[in-house]
């Protein structure tokens, strides 16, 4: 019997997916960096490997039929880590990879990290691996966290909109693909919420549902870089933070897809529904 490997099982998304698969009795191998943090599931074993360690990863993927490849942690060398993971999967003879990508991934995407996702998809194709790409939009779960202590969401987002998606919906969609991967080979799914929202509209919803006053301040590019200078983050990371907003302003994260309902059988959650359910 082949095993389903779930990477990123200690994270918010990977952990959700692993638990959904466990509910269905799926035999899993949880791929983690720290075994002590792995979820305790009835039908799961644990393998420890770093994405960048191709040989350790190959051993961890040995015998895997289907693999959930959660995109690696944001870093300057994330593409090197992704290539090592994909190379290891090819070496191990993995049958199918389900990759968590990003909405409208493209080589010229405004959101800088979306370019990495496009490059990873292209590398999977070049290696001849069967894969399914789940292109997630911005996580609706993170919107309240984007507000500072003063309740202000700051960024050069203008009046642009994004089709925010709940992590629970992404997890349910991913689990559906992992349970029956043969029907999704070569497919690319845009995972979105049910509506496009501007940052100002999202802030109003957060305020109404949670009772915490939140508003949006539309920064200029200069203001955006200046307000983030206090974190002393590397340039690539600041570019990623700022381009999250400029991608929305450019209209690149707008557009509602029906993929969540297609894959899960239920409509995608709105931001309001997500916040109400907390």
């Amino acid at each position: 019997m082949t095993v389903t490997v779930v990477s990123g099982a200690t994270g918010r998304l990977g952990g959700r997916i692993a638990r959904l698969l466990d509910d269905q009795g799926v035999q899993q191998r949880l791929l983690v960096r720290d075994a002590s943090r792995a979820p305790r599931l009835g039908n799961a074993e644990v393998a420890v490997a770093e994405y960048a360690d191709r040989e350790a990863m190959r051993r961890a993927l040995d015998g895997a039929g289907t693999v959930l490849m959660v995109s690696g942690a944001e870093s300057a060398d994330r593409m090197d880590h992704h290539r090592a993971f994909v190379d290891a999967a090819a070496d191990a003879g993995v049958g199918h990879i389900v990759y968590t990508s990003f909405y409208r991934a493209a080589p010229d995407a405004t959101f800088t990290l979306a370019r990495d996702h496009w490059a990873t998809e292209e590398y999977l194709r070049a290696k001849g691996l069967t894969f399914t790409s789940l292109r997630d939009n911005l996580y609706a779960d993170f919107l309240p966290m984007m507000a500072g202590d003063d309740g202000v969401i700051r960024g050069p987002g203008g009046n642009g909109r994004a089709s925010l998606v709940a992590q629970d919906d992404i997890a349910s969609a991913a689990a559906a693909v992992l349970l029956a991967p043969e029907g999704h080979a070569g497919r690319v799914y845009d995972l979105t919420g049910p509506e496009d929202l501007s940052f100002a509209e999202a802030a109003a919803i957060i305020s109404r549902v949670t009772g915490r006053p939140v508003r949006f301040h539309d920064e200029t590019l200069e203001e955006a870089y200046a307000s983030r200078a206090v974190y002393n983050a590397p340039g690539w990371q600041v570019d990623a933070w700022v381009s999250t907003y400029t991608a929305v302003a450019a209209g690149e994260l707008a557009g509602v897809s029906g993929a969540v309902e297609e894959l899960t059988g239920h409509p995608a959650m709105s931001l309001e529904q997500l916040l109400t359910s907390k």
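The chain has a mean pLDDT of 96. Residues 16 and 182 are 22 Å apart (CA to CA).
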